[in-house]
Amino acid sequence: VSGCCELIFTSTKGPWITNLSRPCSQGSLGLFVPPSPPLDPDKVKELQRFIGLSRKLLVMTGAGVSTESGIPDYRSDKVGLYARTERRPIQHSDFVRSAPVRQRYWARNFVGWPQFSSHQPNPAHWALSNWERLGKLHWLVTQNVDALHTKAGSQRLTELHGCMHRVLCLNCGEQTPRGVLQERFRVLNPTWSAEAQGLAPDGDVFLTEEQVQSFQVPPCVRCGGPLKPDVVFFGDTVNPNKVDFVHRRVKEADSLLVIGSSLQVYSGYRFILTAREKKLPIAIVNIGPTRSDDMACLKLNSRCGELLPLIDLTDFLLNLAAKGIDCLR
């Protein structure tokens, strides 16, 4: 269900008042979102206070932010990929060393791309973008590769695992927009078609071996090398420079909020360890247990898109206005 998310701040104190309206998508609620208990008003107030006291809030998001936009995740109880099927995500080493593996991957990705690329931000993405606009969010680190934070307007953003909307040549490093590659696929495979056998989290679908055998994969236009999505596959490592950059942002922060991540993958979990070493307060919003529940001062088992828009920044804005700061200028 698509509609309009409207955030209204009213006061008599000056020109920083605004009315922000934009389209949003509720996605496939219930299809990929695990069940959660009703919101606890006291817990919501605690999160409100946690965020209100933060001056340099760092937010880390995971797949649980995007499930409400209709993108499945891997680990959610009963609805994640691991719970629904025996299939597992592609391994980096297999993709790099095997042309048939790359053919199979790109055939699946070609079929799934139109739907994956059409997903839209949900209220959680819009809320985080608004926090940044209002000066409340110091930095946003996402483990997601779906570009939904970018679509929502977030700019103080690090895509820890890359983005499916870019393609990288494994030989020369040339980057290409994923939409450009989609057209090259169409030209090379004018009569090829396949029916999807299910949706996977990272922009591809499930196909049979027979379906993919005749699919043609184009090489890099610059050097003829093999192409790969500009994302970190399982078994690969995050670029060390990106890791160092995020560590610096964590050390600048005065609090850390985890949203929609079980933190099972070390690439994200390591930053929680850094926050703990720095004695930062940590809050977690995630349906189900996480690897860091024992490190958090606050944990909410809630839907991100239901909870985040409830956080009221009016006091924060009034304090800025009293100091003569126009955060929306």
UniProtKB/TrEMBL annotation:
Its main location: mitochondrion. It comes from the Eukaryota. Residues 37-329 form the Deacetylase sirtuin-type domain. The keyword Zinc applies. InterPro entries: DHS-like_NAD/FAD-binding_dom (IPR029035), NAD-dep_sirtuin_deacylases (IPR050134), Sirtuin (IPR003000), Sirtuin_cat_small_dom_sf (IPR026591), Sirtuin_class_II (IPR026587), Ssirtuin_cat_dom (IPR026590). Binds 1 zinc ion per subunit. It is found in: Mitochondrion matrix. Interacts with GLUD1, IDE and SLC25A5. Interacts with DLAT and PDHX. This is NAD-dependent protein lipoamidase sirtuin-4, mitochondrial.
